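Q: I'm writing up a methods section and want to include an example of the input and output format. Could you take the sequence below and give the corresponding predicted structure tokens, formatted cleanly so I can copy it straight into the document?
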Amino acid sequence: MRAVALLDLFFPPKCIFCGALLEGAAGDAALSTCPVCAGKLPYRPEGEILRTVGGCPCAVTFYYDDPVRQGVLALKFGGKAGRARAMGRYIAQTAAEHLGGQFDAVTFVPVSALRNYRRGYDQARLLAEAAAGCWGVKAEKTLRKIRNNRPQSSVQAPEERRANVLGVYTVPRPQQVVGRRFLLIDDVCTTGSTMAAAAQALLNAGAASVVCAALAGGRPPEGEKRADPR
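A: Here is the clean output for your methods example:
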């Protein structure tokens, strides 16, 4: 019995968004999406993929709506770390299409040491590692979160969100970033305050430039949910 078939026998592949079992699926389970979710993934339309956060271009693949929202919550709070592999590939595709040629290295927006300990992993790091692997490079840990601030999801006003992440990120080894062009990855980009704060820390440490990418962000206008037209 092939190794893949044996793994599927003991660990049947599931949809990375809703977690449904995938009947008859073969191959890499981490790349699987069920037909129901595949038909309603909330892709952002071409004109809304690129936005600006803190003066840096940011490419966002999906609206933060189900089933992507469901998948992200499972990744962050449900212990479903394995889902990051396929999600990271979505990020890589969007970054390659919209930010290609603008970065030479990949990094991520880290969680605090306390949150990493409680969760057991850093979801942004997993996404960045998956995305970087598509290009045959490794994601680099360049930033450190030095304060366990309130979750941005619990802060509503844009001004409060910006204040909540002020001074939160630092670059422990500036020599690692000086003169380099980075792709900064996170799971969700809502107002962009978190991404902007992390990007600014890299630039203050001497990075030549920063572009950003996230799996999801924002809510779709009514009637905008639709499968990828590609």
